[in-house]
Known about the structure:
- This protein has a single domain (8-53), classed as Rubrerythrin, domain 2 (Single Sheet), CATH 2.20.28.120.
- It contains no helices and 4 strands.
- The chain has strands spanning 8-15, 21-28, 37-42, 47-53.
- A hairpin with a 5-residue loop joins strand 1 and strand 2.
- It is mainly beta and 56 residues long.
- It is elongated and about 35 Å long.
Amino acid sequence: MAQGKFTERLIRLRCSVCKHVNYFTTKNKKLVERKIEYKKFCNWCRKHTLHKEAKK
């Protein structure tokens, strides 16, 4: 995959409670400038928590 050709990039979602990286998703960086936040299930915490976009 060419690096500069695609605008969608794979990002990591990290649990805001235990800081484990549990999910991966894509984001169009041209359209979405803010950091993505989802409320998803964390296997480490065993409950639904807020997952935020993590640094690379």
